[in-house]
Design brief:
Number of helices: 11
Order of helices and strands: HHHHHHHHHHH
Radius of gyration: 20 Å
Strand content: under 5%
Structural class: mainly alpha
Oligomer: single chain
Number of strands: 0
Distance between the termini: 27 Å
Largest sheet: none
Length: 216
């Protein structure tokens, strides 16, 4: 748990705090907004490259981070438009929202359930048993997928609105605050729905406790 917490904290600092802090630090030295946005986006990309070098693997999200950085560089060189740089995160949220909602009709499991299964590899068989035997369990994860998918699309729309209506220098901090607010809000909804359904508590019990479909 300690290692997971440190990894999550490092990811938060690298992917959110460093870009926002870096942007305002660069602006304090009169770096033009578009270049400050580009350079402040380097920490997440460097984290992905570090993972690639040390673990010899990179996940889909990591590839998207690198892709958005490349698109941002191309945008900077071709247009010099800072507002296009501001909405790069919004395009990520849009893709995430579409991906989540599409998983409801494509594939065996919705994305939120797949994510939970990946985070709880030792509980995979229990989760699958609950999925097969409990309609309420399946309904809860499908509902969560809709919540996160729609939430991602709404977040994207608000981010784009801010990028094109507010002063450029106001947007990075406000967008970071918006991202945190959405993430916390969606997490609260997630926990409420999971607690209400109840099965996950049984799934998380120590392996010495027998869990089989139909019990509990």
């Amino acid at each position: 748990m300690g290692n997971e917490f440190r990894s999550s904290l490092a990811a938060l600092l690298t992917d959110l705090v460093a870009p926002v802090g870096g942007y305002y630090l660069l602006r304090a030295f009169d770096v033009p907004p578009v270049w400050a946005l580009l350079l402040s986006g380097l920490p997440p990309a460097l984290r992905v490259l570090y993972t690639l070098v040390t673990r010899r693997r990179v996940d889909g999200i990591g590839l998207l981070v690198l892709m958005f950085l490349a698109v941002g560089l191309a945008t900077t060189l071709m247009t010099g438009d800072a507002r296009l740089m501001l909405v790069r995160g919004a395009w990520f949220s849009t893709l995430a929202g579409v991906w989540l909602l599409a998983s409801l009709v494509v594939g065996q499991y919705p994305t939120t359930y797949q994510a939970a299964r990946a985070l709880l590899p030792g509980r995979g068989s229990r989760l699958d048993s609950a999925w097969e035997e409990r309609p309420s369990f399946r309904r809860t994860w499908r509902t969560l997928t809709v919540v996160w998918g729609v939430g991602s699309l709404v977040h994207s729309g608000l981010s784009i609105g801010m990028a094109y209506t507010l002063p450029v220098d106001d947007v990075p901090a406000l967008d970071a605050g918006l991202s945190i607010a959405f993430f916390v809000g969606l997490q609260v909804i997630t926990q409420i729905l999971l607690i209400h359904e109840g099965t996950l508590r049984q799934v998380m019990r120590p392996s010495t406790v027998d869990y089989s479909p139909g019990k509990g």
